[in-house]
Amino acid sequence: MGPLTTPTKGLEAPSSEPWTPTSNLKMLISAASPEIRNREKEQAVDSGESENSQEPEQGEEVEKLQISRKDKSLGLLCYKFLARYPNYPNPAVNNKISLDDVATELNVERRRIYDIMNVLESLNMVSRLAKNCYTWHGRVKLAQTLGELKQAGKKNRYEQLMHQIRQRNLEREEREFDLEGEEKENEEMSSFDTDGDSGQAELSGTDPKAASANSRKDKSLRVMSQKFVMLFLVSSPPVVSLEIAAKILIGEDHVVDQDKNKFKTKIRRLYDIANVLSSLELIKKVHVTEDKGRKPAFKWTGPEDLPFPKDPGTSATSSATQPLESRSSVDNCAKNLFSSPGTKRGFTRHHSLVKLVKSIQNDRRKINSAPSSPIKMTGDSANSEFYTNKMAHLAAICKKQLDKQSTGRHIRPNNEVTDALNGSPSHSSESMSASNHQPHGPSGMHIPVLPAGAISYLSTKCSPIIPVLIPQHQAGGSYAVYVHPTSLRPQPTSLAVRSMTFESPGSANAKNSPAAMTSSNQTNHQSSHDKEPTSPSTLKRACGEKSLVESPSKLQRIEPKSISPKLCEILQARLKARRGASVSHRPSPRALHLEFSKPCENQPPSLPTSTAPLEHSVETFLEKEDKVHTSDSEAGLTPVRPPQSQAQKLSVPFQDMGLPSGPIHTETLIPAGYLIPIHQQSIVNFRDAQCSAGEISKASTPTYNVYHTPTAGSRHPLPQEVTPTRLPLHRIPPMSPFPSHGHRIHSPSPAILNFTLQNLGLIPSTTTPNSTPESSSTLPSPHPGLPHQSMIFVKPLSPARALQPASMHGQPVTLISIPQALVTTPKGGQPLQQSFFHTPVSFPTVTNTTAPKNFYIPQRKLDVSPEDN
DNA sequence: CCATCCCGCCAATTA
DNA sequence: TAATTGGCGGGATGG
User: Fold this and answer.
1) Given pLDDT bands bounded at 50, 70 and 90, which one contains residue A117?
2) pTM
């Protein structure tokens, strides 16, 4: 069933059909304009068609809508766009996005859609399938992507750069140059980094030559978006002013102002990006009052805890591992999902290849899936989605309006700084909360909201088994699920691509347990094999060349640790001295890391499901990869690019060795790129889903559904970075009892919608018309998709607390339950990805830590005023 | 006046 | 070569 109609179409439908009268109204209204809210207040509900009736209530004739510029804003457009798709799409379905359709439906020029897509693509929320076609991933990979970006940001030392710039500014202000000398020093330091990392990227952008391969293009929006996000993830108060961001994004600030124009342009672009990110609710506008005056800035409101890619090498993270971005090359690579070969060559996937791949994939799935329970995505779900989308759309809008209405800003989180706080000491503690989930909460990022259905897993490395609790209200009580850690990490999915591979090694904790690693590797191998061999050399020239060449260089690598700390200290010292502001440093996670890691090691390597056999030496693995990388792409894997492989190679050994440097270098090299991670998890789900439904769906759609992520980025995590927590988790294979049921929630949207509508008074209560199964959880949780603060207050309880105490004893692992309220969830029916990670080893304290301590922010010079609006 | 940022020309890249 | 992407900056708009 599901498959039939399904997915594909779902999208378009919304466009114009009249859904319900009311809905239309809403849509219109929303679309109409900001003023709407006013209107709403007045009218509240209104009659149909706003236009028609026109309601002169207001009297004015404003004529329908004044089309003010705001009505056309990119942010609003983005909201509309997002409303069309579920936050956690069911992987089984093919979530294709046709640019033409979207543009038509939303009534905008294509150009605008590109802007949105580029930003979303940079966050892995979508990936380009083909010409006019993108695949929607929603927020499934978001947490991971953010984690990777964070790593990349650290690597690039954006934090330091930011500090430097700030200081510089201060100095300038105060006295122009006096301190130049010092600054220079700093700069130099930084510059190195920069050069190493981003610098290159930058250069390329600036310099044509550097770019050689890189198309200049690569640089832009996508890369910019990633860098911008990195800044937030890295800075302690997660507040970034446009000015600073622009400077960093531009090659550097040293450049000085020369190009005013350039600066101006950069700012323009940042606004574009910021609008999209705001729609995603990852950031919000604020003003910072620094020494100078008030400057426009944005505050991060997204999730703070991200999975750390590094550690886990195992799982997904690794994929993440790389943050990388390589800019141009990356892009290219990435883009090429499938293959990416040489510039032109690409293999473009190939039709024929595709078929092969599919078949292969299918086989794999079967295999893999077997153990796992299939998920179901039934047709209904599909249908439901259909509706859902619409609903979501409306809901989103409504929500938005509501928000506006409710002026209140909620809390300002200024201090959300959780990260900073906790962060340094332990990500771990903090992290827990919700890694993945969406953020929407107002400011709270951490709130763990889980979808009712969803199961969260904690990954703990430590204990072999991880208990997971899932609280569900309605549905059932909470459940505890035990999962083998191993399974988690190494992802069973064969799909994992090489990216994964390297991840594992690297991430695997610094030390990584061999077993785990191997397993993962293995998987990769398999998958990779099948696929196409082509890719290897081909990559884009750029990629290959650069990576190759550069990789060797270790420039950065070396210093990072050594240097960075120094710099930090210096900077901090300076800052303190000057301002008294302090910069928070994060303590290096490493120490923790190690500790944690050990436990992990203990775990049994083998996984039940995991396919991963162990073994394979890295080398082997590598070899294979080289040959094959891409193969997976279809499977949903990402394509690989040769360079990566190399990188991996390098990295692997090093890591194993325990040397950070190796891998790092690579990264460094490419700093600027755009990252594209791969997620296993998703894959997994996907598979599962497919098992059940997949075939059908496929049949319907010839295309590949796969979603592969575009590419994996190449890099791996830095060794340094290894953070203690690793969490990867995300979806687990179907071990858990429940998940199997498909019930999932797919899109929250309906729920939300209801919620919204109810609030509005539009509808009585209860479910939406088309109920979807998930309806059970009526509560509206704000979904990721629509975040609203206002809508629901989810209080972030400390998760730990919420959960049962049991967890405590249970071991190191803490469990977190999530209120079911939150509906959201991924559709996959499965466990979603939320991962919580708790720190594995928790000492008793851990739990505690999580919550409460957030408040203090060390220094902050900046005042942030919420502005909104 | 100035912060935002829409619009769309037109170049780069693809098909 | 045509079409698709998407850099880029003029200049409009709202505050």
Assistant:
1) very high
2) 0.46
- Check if residue A260 sits with its Cβ under 7 angstroms from strand B: no
Question: Measured in angstroms, what separates residue A265's CA from nucleotide C9's C1'?
Answer: 7
Alpha-carbon distance of A569 to A490, in angstroms, equals 37
Alpha carbons A219 and A345: distance in angstroms, whole number: 21
With H, G, I as helix, E, B as strand and everything else as coil, classify residue A80: helix
Element (H, E) at A561: helix A555-578
CA distance A140 to A436: 8
Task: Look at phi and psi of residue A603 and say left if phi exceeds 0, alpha if psi is from -120 to 50, else beta.
Answer: beta
Tokens of A674: 């755009």
Query: Do A772 and A387 meet the contact criterion of CB atoms below 8 Å apart?
Result: yes
Work out whether strand A457-459 and strand A835-837 pair parallel, antiparallel, or are unpaired: parallel
Which nucleotides on strand B sit less than 7 A from a protein beta carbon? Answer: 3-10, 12-15
pLDDT tens track for A10-61: 233 333 333 333 333 334 444 433 333 333 333 333 333 333 333 333 434 4
**Residue located via tokens 């000085």:** A256
Vertex A83, ends A78 and A88: CA angle to 5°? Answer: 110
A258 touches strand C (CB under 7 A): no
Q: Would you say the C-beta of A344 is within 7 Å of strand B?
A: yes
CA distance A358 to A516: 27
Map tokens 């904790």 to a residue.
A509
**C-alpha–C-alpha distance, residues A611 and A525, integer Å:** 11
Nearest nucleotide, CA A345 to C1': B14
Predicted pLDDT at A601: 28
Coil, helix or strand at residue A788: coil
Nucleotide whose C1' lies closest to the alpha carbon of residue A540: B13
CB-strand contact A132/C, under 7 Å: yes
| β-bridge mates for residue A466, sequence order | A483
Q: List, in sequence order, every residue forming a beta bridge with A618; answer none if it has no partner.
A: none
Query: Does the C-beta of A848 come within 7 A of strand C?
Result: no
| More confident call, A333 vs A270 | A270
Q: Are A676 and A713 in contact (CB under 8 A)?
A: yes
Q: Is the CB of A111 under 7 A from strand C?
A: yes
- In angstroms, the CA A14 to CA A686 distance is 25
Nucleotides of C under 7 A from a protein CB: 4-11, 13-14
* A711: Cα separation from own chain's centroid: 14
Residue A397 has a CB neighbour count (10 Å cut-off) of 25
Q: In this predicted model, which residue has the larger pLDDT, A53 or A86?
A: A86
Instruction: Give the range among A118-127, A449-458, A661-670 with minimum mean pLDDT.
Output: A449-458
Q: Outline where DSSP puts E strands in A283-435.
A: 283-289, 294-300
Q: Map tokens 């939150």 to a residue.
A: A822
| A297-A301-A304-A308 Cα dihedral, nearest 10 degrees | -80
Cβ contacts of residue A452 below 8 Å, gap of 6+?
A: A472, A473, A474, A475, A745, A774, A776, A777, A820, A821, A822, A823, A825
